[in-house]
Amino acid sequence: MDNHAAGISIIAFIVAVAVSMGYYQFVYIPQANARPILPEEVIDPSEVLEISIAEGSAVETNPRFFVPADARGAIGIQNKVVWANEDTVPHTVTTDDDYRDAYSGVFDSRERPEEEGGPFVMPGEEYEFLFTKVGQYSYHCEPHPWMTGKVEIVENFA
Ligand SMILES: [Cu+2]
Predict the structure, then answer these.
(1) CA of 138 to the centre of ligand 1 (A)
(2) Predicted TM-score of the model (pTM)
(3) Rounded Cα distance, 143 and 97, in Å
(4) Span from the CA of 80 to the centroid of ligand 1 (angstroms)
């Protein structure tokens, strides 16, 4: 192979690498991370389902932890759930079974970015999660495993 042919094959190689990197970065990754397209009322429901984290929850003998411990909402109405920490210590809201919502990501306050409040729901603060699918979602608090709760999201029959 003379120098000219070698030069052309090097350039061809560089172009091929650049094209495949560009495909990966600008086509493959955005498609892999794309959120599903959902009806507006599912993304921004008219109501929220409120659950309070009761005062004294860090103590195992406390009479209540997540209130209500069994919460129920309809898709497109109250499929956004807000946990308000009314206790004096930090807690988490953590899925029992690694549930990941296709739109909202992992159901776990520990996955929450720092700018949205970070992993712990601090006293007086909130954690919110949007469930975009009908189902039963069990969760607990990571530092206090006796704190358990369940959210059920049902079909909207209205
Ligand atoms: Cu806790």
Answers:
(1) 15
(2) 0.80
(3) 16
(4) 21
Ligand 1 centroid distance, CA of 146 (Å): 8
Task: Please measure the distance between the N-terminal and C-terminal CA atoms of the chain and give it in whole angstroms.
Answer: 75
* Per-residue pLDDT tens digits of the chain, which is 158 residues long: 577 888 888 888 878 878 788 777 777 776 667 788 999 999 999 999 999 999 999 999 999 999 999 999 999 999 999 999 999 999 999 999 999 999 999 999 999 999 999 999 999 999 999 999 999 999 999 999 999 999 999 998 76
Q: How far is the CA of 43 from the centre of ligand 1 (A)?
A: 28
> How many whole angstroms from 112 Cα to the centroid of ligand 1?
16
Tell me the pairing of strands 135-140 and 148-154.
antiparallel
Ligand 1 center to 103 CA (angstroms):
26
CA of 13 to the centre of ligand 1 (A): 56
Asked if 106 and 39 touch (Cβ cutoff 8 Å), the reply is: no
Q: Amino acid identity of 75?
A: I
Q: Are strands 48-53 and 80-85 parallel, antiparallel or unpaired?
A: parallel
As a whole number of angstroms, the distance between CA 56 and CA 42 comes to: 34
